[in-house]
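Section 4.2 – Deliverable D4.2 (structural model, holo form)

The reporting period included a commitment to supply a predicted holo structure for the target in complex with calcium ion. Inputs used:
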Amino acid sequence: MTARQPVNPDLARLLDDIGAMMELLGEDSFRASAHTRAARTIRDLPFDLSTLDGEGDSLKPRLLELENIGPKIADKIVEFIGTGKIEEHDRLCKDCPPGLMELLRIPGLGPKTVRSLWQDGGVVNRASLQKIIDDGSILKLPRMGAKSVEKIKASLAFTATEQVRLWLGAALPLGEGIVKVLEKARAAARLSYAGSLRRGKETIGDIDILAAVEKDSPARAAALMEAFRGLPGVSEVLAAGETKSSIRLKSAGELARIGDGRKGRDVSLGAGIQIDLRIVPAASWGAALLYFTGSKEHNVELRERAQKMGLTLNEYGLFPEDDEETPPQARGIRPVAAATEEEVYAALGLAYIPPELREARGEIERFELAGAEAVPAKKKAAKKAATPTGGPRRIGVPGLIELADIKAELHAHTTASDGELSILELAKAAKARGFHTIAVTDHSKSSPIAGGLTVERLKAHIRAVHEADAQIDGITILAGSEVDILADGHLDYDDELLAQLDIVVASPHTATTQDPETATKRLLKAVRHPLVHILGHPTARLINRRPGMSPDIGEIAAAAKEHGVALEINAHWMRLDLRDQHVRAATDAGCLVAINCDVHAEEDFDNLRYGVLTGRRGWLTKEMCVNAWGAGDLRKWLKRRGNRG
Ligand code: DGT
Ligand code: CA
Ligand code: CA
Ligand code: ZN
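Output (structure tokens):
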């Protein structure tokens, strides 16, 4: 079969566009949202659709097995894989001014609003939107108040400069720094970052900060807002209200340093990012934190669940459902639950769902408490569900991996290749972090730029590692290699040499633009190699830099399970490869996972938390993470084959 290019990203974008254009044209909104859902499914798939067997009609049954893919959409996917186009997309494009699609990508502008701007205001692109804002005629359009126009204006200005999403490793120290500085104002009863940052997503669009202030203390709210607008590095105040402000940073270095205490960082990381602060009453803290943590899709599923229980959920609380127009909080209705997230989940018959799991990927079903389904759709429903008689039937993901579980680093470089630390310095740094094992895995001979070791140098290096190991107590130093997986799947050293190592991490570094099928074959070959323990950064992607390969992770995970190989989550925030959905595919397949910092310098150990967050987003448990095992279990696993171990 001929190799095909990866299709998921382009296909998902096309389906999204179809959904959006249908909405713009006022076509059936159910059909429109079916396309949007299908796009989401495809974007989240752990494998590329181009790797499925079959063409045309023989491909269709496989597509229909996927969630959110019905017969009509399956036809369009078959069409796209076959021809690279979707005819319906072309048809819709003829009827939709292209500038409208660009408007849709502006945050805060949904299809309904854009349709009205177009139909009632003659807007066809950014320029014509800007014009009716400037001459004020936008205010005459239906549903356009001064407030919503302000929002659109701010969004337009924001998107005028092309923004890429910020790396998690740049955003998390910022979020922490902001919370620390605002805590000093002593005005908030509760403070947290929320949004995608709290969910530990690999990239962050904007940073959402939430604060609770006790009722009737407007002075405190004002003080908090002032502290927020005065944060170090602020370049612009985009909005300044009593309960919500938005700022933009010109430099993020100082805040990030306050956040994680690391000096000498690149100050351009995070410059330009928008930060929102919302202040909510302390009594509705839990409901607000839940709402503003998202994801939007998780919130939608929660609200649907509430509705089925005769309840209504918003950012002020969980309330009994009634037929009134005015929202319950405005009528002084007491919420069933609101103060903490735990209470709200419990009242919905759910155990507490960790933020990293809130992506509408089956977590709600998984965290259901016993008796929740039996609850009658009455006002008292939530109370009953909150104290289930049978105790929890499922408790989510027991043993979900945590930072403190990690006791070994199994991928690290020394001065022998491109690292900054000597073997002993590396071992001391690992020991200081409470690890029982550190693996020295310098680059192999095909990576001369990275100082890859020739066969002779590796042999000497193995001896040096064993000598260092004899010199230091309280930690085991393993002699290993990060051996290149060559483009055809062969490894960069022969088996005789690999067998002398305690641990073998096999990683792809070159030919990362291979088509999915070739990449899958290449990686499978490495996984099936009897001397390999860990498949390092399997796709070789670099976030915001290069997409890397799109192998069939499901197939690789199945082979990894069969051969007892661990797939690596590379904790560096620019890699996070495996990514969250790939980790989920691995955990679903039941294969082992490693979380490694790929240490080149001491501070790289600090990246561990990004790897752990990614592991949690993939439902990884400590039992399946080799870095969380005791020294004995780890040794046993390493020795299981021909390796020295
Ligand atoms: P980002 O900023 O693109 O990385 O992603 P998020 O998830 O932080 O999204 P953002 O900043 O637009 O909104 C923060 C949270 O607020 C989001 O996760 C859920 C909630 N939220 C925002 N807009 C809506 C909405 O229209 N409906 C619902 N249900 N929730 C929303
Ligand atoms: Ca956000
Ligand atoms: Ca936001
Ligand atoms: Zn590498």
